[in-house]
Amino acid sequence: MGPGTEGSGGSEAFVVRHRFEDRFRPSGKGFEARRILYRQKRVDQSYELDRSHFVENEGKILRKLKRGVAVWLRALGRSLLLAPLAWLVELIGPYVGMPRGWGVVGLVIWTVTFFAFLNIYVWLAMLEYFRRRRMSIERPFDAEGEDRRGLLPPASQAIVGKVAALGPSGAGEVYREAWLDGTDDEGRFTRRVSGGDHFVVVPDDGSPPLVCDIEGPPLIVGPSEREAMASTAMRALFPDTFADGDAETVVLRVGDAVAVHAEELRDLPRVDHVELDGVIRSFRPGEQSDAPYRGGGARPGRRAISAMTKPLRIRKLR
User: Beta strands of the chain (E only): which ranges?
Assistant: First the structure.
């Protein structure tokens, strides 16, 4: 078998065509999360993440309660701008049969209500602040391959098959995710670096091959490995990092059994002629020719895009 064939182990080195980094740093708000996109070994884009699959996301009821109190507090605060009307009521009240003092009583009750909501909001904000200070980041996998963060949908919704490379690449590894803890001038931080190449999953049920188009980092769950930062593959994944020790990694290799959860699938007229990143890539199982006179033909497939907001969810099976 040649490069890009089903089950081919390949002989080329691990190639990083796409690389993404999520960097988490403790702060007074719990964690600051930033995503960095690399192109050609340089930063192409960097932006703050509003949320992350890897940061503890508890306290939803507390946040909703705080937002609800804030809405009422804002309305009450604006209504107090009408406080001078209470004195107007006091002036005209006797002429319309209203006893004196009711305007002032109403204003006092309304003001007390405002400060009661303000007090509740302050306490809720303090509780949220201290809860966020105790927030922690959690890797989505461990040595046993457990789905710690509950990232994967039911197994019945997955496409189960084996990983294969897209030609002309013949690398034995197609994608990997690594977690590394470090420190800098600003303090302690955690890096999640994900990178590699587009790849194919050949379903076990004989359905068309699935081309995984990597436009954003997929969520990978599987048994993790410890790998030295000095290894060739890790140097390719961290070209700008000089660190000792090991990183925790999950590696997708050609021939690995995986279960892929894709939110959207698109039909491909042929998998031996796919344009990705402006380059024609191909997958030919067993090096079968598609020449009509040889009895071949264009083999259809499907395409699954791992986007920034809708990542592929992949479980690496044992």
Answer: 18-27, 30-39, 42-48, 159-165, 173-184, 187-196, 199-203, 210-214, 219-221, 225-228, 246-253, 257-261, 265-268, 274-276, 279-281, 301-306, 313-316
> In the chain, what are the domain boundaries?
18-27+139-316, 60-133
Task: Tally Cβ neighbours within 10 Å of residue 317.
Answer: 16
Give the CA count within 13 Å in the CB-facing half-sphere of 135.
Answer: 26
Q: What is the pLDDT of residues 281-318, one digit of tens each?
A: 989 876 544 444 344 457 899 999 999 889 999 999 86
Short-list 85, 4, 10, CA closest to 273: 4
Query: pLDDT tens digit string along 85-119?
Result: 777 776 776 666 666 666 677 778 888 888 898 88
In the chain, the amino acid numbered 118 is L
182-203: average pLDDT: 87
Contacting residues for 80 by C-beta, under 8 A, at least 6 apart? 110, 111, 114
Q: Is 245 in contact with 229 (CB distance < 8 Å)?
A: yes
Which runs of E-coded beta strand occur in 28-111? 30-39, 42-48
In sequence order, what are the beta bridge partners of 199?
165, 212
Distance CA 216, CA 238 (A): 17
Give the tens place of pLDDT for each residue, 264-276: 889 999 888 888 8
